[in-house]
Amino acid sequence: MAPDFLLNEKMIQDLWLIGIGTGSPAHVTLEGMQALRDASIILVPQKAAGKTDLAELRHRIIAASGTAARIIGFDYPVRDPDLPYLERVNAWHDEIALRWQAALEGTPVPGPVALLVWGDPALFDSTLRIAERLTPRPKLLVVPGITAIQALTAAHAIPLNTINGAVEITTGSRLRAHGWPRGATTVVVMLDGACSFKHLDPQGLMIWWGAFLGMPEQILEHGALADVAGRIEARRTTARAEHGWIMDIYLLRRTETA
């Protein structure tokens, strides 16, 4: 059951979710910068082990906006690996919502509370679902940001879709479990720490892969899947070991429609 919060003058009544893109401060729109300036409080995740560059990027964006908002940090909880997947995620989201509210305890909230959301709040991000756990629900403002898909296709200078071709966005686990999505000519895979493209028949498949998109550490690879799969996996392993984390995404397309 989702936690139940009673909102008062010291709690969240207006919650602004601001998409900040995938790593470049230039990804933040003018609307996003204005929202940061207009916010009363900005909640920022504390530095996690191995992810100080992500926290520093958020603080650089906040500083660049020129906001006078109060900055309050909070710690992300750790997901319980012993729970079934959906139960684990739901419990994690419940705890994040609790920590948002705990971070504001004893602090007057005279205006909107903002959160900087990696990428875009509407695509493969759960901040909106977490916000729904607040009861009564605060008034939401969503400021869109550059998605990882946009950053990937721009970095490789390719279109997302083929002419009259279907695009499917999926996860690595679904790709492993179900194979190539039926009817799709282009498949975008997110949240894949297992390089699930290895489980596909590479014949006739092209891949465009990217990690740390928009950041100075950006890495790109593309080519026939049969030729570059091993290189992508090796570069991914090396980069993750070097940085302590990695966010990557890839697009697959059949050769005849590439």
Structural summary, described in words:
- This protein has 258 residues and is an alpha/beta fold.
- It has two domains: 133 residues, Cobalt-precorrin-4 Transmethylase, domain 1, CATH 3.40.1010.10; 109 residues, 2-Layer Sandwich (Methyltransferase, Cobalt-precorrin-4 Transmethylase, Domain 2), CATH 3.30.950.
- It has seven helices and ten strands.
- The strands form two sheets. The protein has a five-stranded parallel sheet, sandwiched between helices.
- α6 links the parallel β6 and β7.
- The radius of gyration is 20 Å and the shape is globular.
- The N terminus is likely disordered.
- This is Precorrin-6A synthase [deacetylating].
- Pathway: Cofactor biosynthesis; adenosylcobalamin biosynthesis.
